[in-house]
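Let us practice reading a record.
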Amino acid sequence: MGVYSIVIGLIFVINIALAISIIFLERKDPTSSWAWVMVLLFIPVLGFILYLIFGRPISNRRIFKWDQRSRMDVKTTVQKQINAIEEDTFQLNHEELKKHQDLVYLHLRNDDAIFTENNGVDIYTDGHEKFEALLEDISRAKHHIHVQYYIMRSDGLGTRLANALIRKAKEGVCVRLLYDDMGSRSLKRSYIKKLKEAGVLVEAFFPSKFIINFKINYRNHRKLTIIDGEIGYIGGFNVGDEYLGMKSKFGYWRDTHLRVIGNAVQSMQTRFVLDWNQASKMKIPYEEEHFQTIAGGNIGMQIVSSGPDSEYEQIKNGYIKMIMEAEEYIYIQTPYFIPDESLRDALRIAVLSGVDVKIMIPNKPDHPFVYWATMYYCGDLLGAGAEIFIYQNGFLHAKTIVVDGRIASVGTANIDVRSFRLNFEVNAFLYDIDVVKRLIKEFDNDLVHSTQMTKKLYDKRSIGIRLKESVSRLISPVL
């Protein structure tokens, strides 16, 4: 028997073993499991390499470790709120939101997401306005600045942010910057060096340690900034000129970001500390100065995280619960729409129950296969009676869901398998009529710049487009 035959036989055995492992040992979604089995069987060598990089589950050991004191404080508060809901003594600022306390309960049980009601919220949909506000808040920082982004560029906006952080570091403010190694792969070493030399603490999430980064598929997609424990930013904007609509093939960049003042900032701070302590050897200890929040209003809010380290898909479960509670309408904005079967069924049932479902997606693809898969699933819901709108004024990157003018979610999670199962994400779930009305107003403004995809137009798709959609749908579980 020749060497060639031995190698082929060995590859065959390895592929069979992997296929068996995927099916019987790994807790993957059946659709994803079969997608990887087909990859292994049809492209043995390359499929094996792709699986090592993109398909392996993340380690079962706890990635984010809590300091005992902070864990006890959170657990105590969470249990008190759970008990209050179960005993029907849970108090809300707005009695008309009581019907949504089941959603609050879900996040308490599913994610230890403390509910707070003393928050003030500013909504930014334009990059210039968001970053001007952020830079102004940074300039007033007294104690610490914690910054976390998925994508950071070394361009004009990136330089402005770096200079602002450097100035504060030289003033004695503790500045920490955390970025995702994959998302910020174009970030120049000179940029990082300049920050570090000025005293800014900089870390990368899941950095490459070998030629091949075996954690490359698990990305920290969160965007958070916490200033003095009092002001928090959360939403969809990354750091780069394209998010200002500059030097971008997409033109204007439409996103949604929140500026928060209130106790919800403590939850954002906790999330940053957990992420930082995973990435850095210089741990952040529990300090009262990190949690000195101030009241900003009367808006109810929960900060909910999800990631591949968790048994549950916390943000997706929150989306489904919101959809299930809808009686009048559901407005969704997302750059990628690749719902799994559970979310797709929830939306289809809502439509067939008479709920007005409007979904807005961009008209331009930044990832072609994801875009064609999005079009396929939009067409599927279009057939059930949902309304699909194509945003035409640049690129729509907002991740927003609004239900019945009472509850909403804004954050980093797209409606796709990657956000639900592979990425580390964070969303704000909002319980307030006034702030939700503001989000509805932004949605209505975007409708002016959108065209409606009717069933008649969708059915006129060419054979080529239908083929692209079908192929993209088949590989959507591993996109």
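A brief commentary: The radius of gyration is 23 Å.
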